[in-house]
Amino acid sequence: MTHAAAANAPVVPRGNGFSRDAFAGRNEEHRGFRRSRTMMASATRAAVLLAAAVLAHVAGAAPFPDQVSQGALVRATVNPHAKVRVAGHVLRVGPRGGIVFGVGRDEQGPVTIEVTERDGQRERIAIPVTPRDWPIERIEGVPPKTVEPPPEIAARIQREQARVVAARRRDDAREDYAQAFTWPVEGRISGRFGNQRVYVVDGKDVPKSPHSGMDIAVPQGTPVKAPAAGVVTFADPDLYLTGGTVLIDHGHGVSSNFLHLSRIDVKVGQRIAQGDVIGAAGMTGRATGPHVHWGMNWFDVRVDPLLLLEPHEP
C-alpha cells in the first residue's frame, strides 16, 4: 500500500509587510521583518518537504518528511482501512483515505504518527518540528476594560468562550478542508499568527495570549467571503472581545473563525460554498481599526491560515 502525505507550504504575500500592531489601521512595520521573512522561508522549505513526501508500504521504508513547521495544517492520504493516531489522537479517515491534523504554535516535536493497517502491520514515525520566529507586538489604544476586565465582564467572557470552544470541537465526516483555501478579503496583512501580544494600559505592559490568527486590513463594511466550503456552527454579533463572530466547520475537526465583523449574513446550520459572503469587515469587540481576523483550528489546536494560501497582491 502507498500513503501520500501533503501539506500546504507557508507563503508570504508579495508586497505585504507585517505591522508591529496586529490590528488594522497601523502602518508601522516590524523592525524585525527581514528576520521574520527568513524564518518564514525556512518554514516554507520544511512544508514543501512535507508536501512532497510519499509513504512507502508499512513494512518497508517510510519516507516521511524530514520536518514540519509550527502552525501547519497537515493534510494526507492513507489506506482508507488504516487506523491513524497523531500524538495519541485517533484521526477520522475518509472514504478515500483523507486525514488531517494540526501542529500547534508551541509544538516542540517530534510529532508522532502511528499508522496501523487492517492486517495489523504498524508503522510509527516521529517528525521533528521546525520552530518559527514569534515577534513581540505592543498594542496601544484599546479600552482598558477589554484588557483587564472587571469580574462580571470576565465571567461573561468565559461563558462566551465556552460556546466557541464547543462549536469548534465537531468531528464531521465532510472533507471540505481538502480543497484549496482562498483569501476571505484582499488586503494588507496587519497582524500575523503567533506573535506574542503585550497591551499597553495606562503606561503599563500587560502580556496576553499570542495572536490566534491573521489580520487583514480592509475598509469597514468590506464583504468577507468563505475561504472554503463548510457549515456555519456559530454566529453571534456581539461577543465581548471578538464582536461579530462566525465559525465555519470544514470537517474532520478543521474550522475557520472570523472576528470583529460589522455584519453577519449567515445562520447556524447553514451550508455555504467557497466564496459565499458570510458578513462584513468591522472593528467590533477589542479592536483598534477595521479589519478581518481569520483564525483556524484543528479542534483546540490553533493553526496558521497563511500557510494554506497562495500569494496575492494587496
UniProtKB/TrEMBL annotation:
<feature type="domain" description="M23ase beta-sheet core">
    <location>
        <begin position="210"/>
        <end position="305"/>
    </location>
</feature>
<dbReference type="GO" id="GO:0004222">
    <property type="term" value="F:metalloendopeptidase activity"/>
</dbReference>
<dbReference type="InterPro" id="IPR050570">
    <property type="entry name" value="Cell_wall_metabolism_enzyme"/>
</dbReference>
<feature type="region of interest" description="Disordered">
    <location>
        <begin position="1"/>
        <end position="23"/>
    </location>
</feature>
<dbReference type="InterPro" id="IPR016047">
    <property type="entry name" value="M23ase_b-sheet_dom"/>
</dbReference>
<protein>
    <submittedName>
        <fullName>Peptidase M23-like protein</fullName>
    </submittedName>
</protein>
<dbReference type="Pfam" id="PF01551">
    <property type="entry name" value="Peptidase_M23"/>
</dbReference>
<dbReference type="InterPro" id="IPR011055">
    <property type="entry name" value="Dup_hybrid_motif"/>
</dbReference>
